[in-house]
């Protein structure tokens, strides 16, 4: 499945939202993780449907999907756990099994995260649990049945959250357990099945999607005047309504973007720097909280902390992608100098119209030197 440029741009927007939420505590930017979920549901369902179709010509549905997911997710995840163990001296004795058996959302849900830098891993737990369940449904169900299942999850999830809210003393279980957040992934899955079944579906629903996004965002802002409309309040009002408005709004913007092949928003989302940030957003997400914490030990103002942490996390993500993750996925590393240049330099129209041809000498030298180092 080829990369979709505007989806990479949306992924970059998602990681910027997450980073800003953690660096500055900006309201509503918690939806950045929800945007990741919607995009994941859309992309993974599209891949599964294509693999299902390929079985008629001898393709292997299960091994193709899980081997690719393992190569994409596990190397960076394991390396992150190793790095975080040394930097933060993690005591694994009573928590290791959550992280080995793909359930890092459970310790967050029940207050068992001992190192704050590991907090962001909860969303990986949600996605990994989705990978274990959803492929079976795609394999067994027709497209019509899949649409009904996805729509059913979207409808039932807010009811589950409302009913379960009084059972918990904090908002973390509702926020991080897959049972209560499945509607985000289901929304992406629904869009993938609907658009895959009918090539005109996205175009027909563009205007509705635009209006739905505006209404959902307006309601989120309006409800925010109520003190109980906060994630930390663990209220039925927030748990039943806010997450569902997020699902509707983010699903709508995905439909609108996929149905648009021109315009200012499309042009913005498909610029090279934004697409590249979307490409390395997985590793950025893994490390950003830990880097913020470490930088905060030396700086004591939010803006300098954010600027330094963002730069450091970008560098970690870029080198991890080109020298660790991409080779495992069978991709080359020759694009590193150009990628670094498009993030840290070459501001201006070249982002919009043409590829930069010459990388700074220092970056080329650093890249060459790193190529000559043995992999540990």
- The rough form would be described as globular
Rg estimate, integer Å: 21 Å
Whole-number mean pLDDT: 87
Counting H and I runs of at least 4 residues, what is the number of helices?
Answer: 19
Distance between the termini: 32 Å
Order of helix and strand elements from N to C terminus: HHHHHHHHHHHHHHHHHHH
The portion of residues assigned to helices is over 70%
The helix-and-strand class reads mainly alpha
Strand % is under 5%
- Tell me how many strands there are: 0
Largest sheet: none
- Unreliable residue runs: 343-376
Assembly of the depicted chains:
single chain
Description of the structure:
This protein is mostly helical and 376 residues long. It has a domain at 28-264. 73% of the residues lie in helices and 0% in strands. The chain is built from 19 helices and no strands. It has helices spanning 5-24, 31-54, 61-88, 96-100, 105-109, 122-140, 143-164, 172-176, 178-197, 201-204, 206-223, 236-258, 264-269, 272-279, 281-296, 302-328, 336-344, 350-353, 361-371. The longest helix has 28 residues, at 61-88.
Per-chain topology:
Layout lengths: L4 H20 L6 H24 L6 H28 L7 H5 L4 H5 L12 H19 L2 H22 L7 H5 L1 H20 L3 H4 L1 H18 L12 H23 L5 H6 L2 H8 L1 H16 L5 H27 L7 H9 L5 H4 L7 H11 L5
Summarize this entry quickly.
This protein is an all-alpha fold and 376 residues long.
What labels describe this entry?
mainly alpha, 376 residues, globular, 19 helices, disordered C terminus
């Amino acid at each position: 499945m080829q990369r979709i440029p505007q989806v990479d741009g949306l992924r970059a927007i998602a990681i910027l939202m997450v980073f800003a939420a953690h660096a500055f505590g900006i309201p509503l930017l918690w939806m950045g993780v929800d945007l990741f979920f919607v995009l994941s549901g859309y992309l993974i369902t599209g891949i599964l449907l294509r693999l299902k179709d390929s079985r008629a010509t001898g393709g292997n549905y299960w091994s193709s999907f899980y081997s690719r997911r393992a190569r994409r997710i596990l190397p960076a995840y394991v390396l992150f756990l190793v790095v975080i163990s040394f930097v933060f001296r993690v005591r694994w004795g009573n928590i290791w099994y959550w992280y080995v058996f793909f359930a890092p959302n459970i310790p967050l849900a029940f207050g068992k995260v001992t190192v704050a830098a590991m907090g962001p891993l909860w969303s990986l737990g949600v996605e990994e649990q989705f990978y274990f369940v959803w492929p079976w449904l795609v394999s067994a169900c027709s497209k019509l049945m899949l649409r009904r299942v996805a729509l059913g999850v979207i409808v039932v999830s807010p009811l589950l959250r409302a009913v379960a809210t009084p059972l918990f003393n904090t908002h973390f279980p509702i926020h991080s357990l897959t049972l209560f957040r499945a509607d985000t992934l289901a929304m992406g899955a629904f869009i993938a099945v609907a658009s895959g079944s009918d090539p005109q579906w996205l175009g027909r629903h563009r205007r509705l999607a635009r209006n739905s996004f505006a209404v959902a965002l307006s309601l989120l802002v309006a409800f925010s005047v109520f003190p109980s409309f906060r994630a930390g309040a663990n209220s039925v009002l927030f748990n039943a309504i806010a997450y569902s408005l997020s699902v509707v709004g983010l699903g709508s913007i995905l439909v609108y973007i996929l149905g648009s092949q021109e315009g200012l928003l499309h042009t913005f989302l498909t610029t090279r720097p934004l697409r590249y940030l979307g490409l390395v957003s997985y590793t950025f997400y893994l490390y950003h909280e830990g880097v913020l914490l470490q930088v905060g030990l030396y700086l004591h103002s939010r803006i300098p902390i954010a600027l330094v942490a963002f730069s450091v996390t970008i560098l970690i993500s870029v080198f991890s992608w080109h020298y660790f993750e991409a080779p495992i996925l069978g991709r080359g590393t020759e694009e590193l100098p150009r990628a670094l240049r498009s993030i840290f330099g070459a501001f201006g129209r070249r982002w919009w119209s043409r590829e930069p041809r010459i990388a700074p000498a220092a970056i080329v030298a650093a890249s060459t030197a790193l190529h000559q180092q043995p992999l540990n």
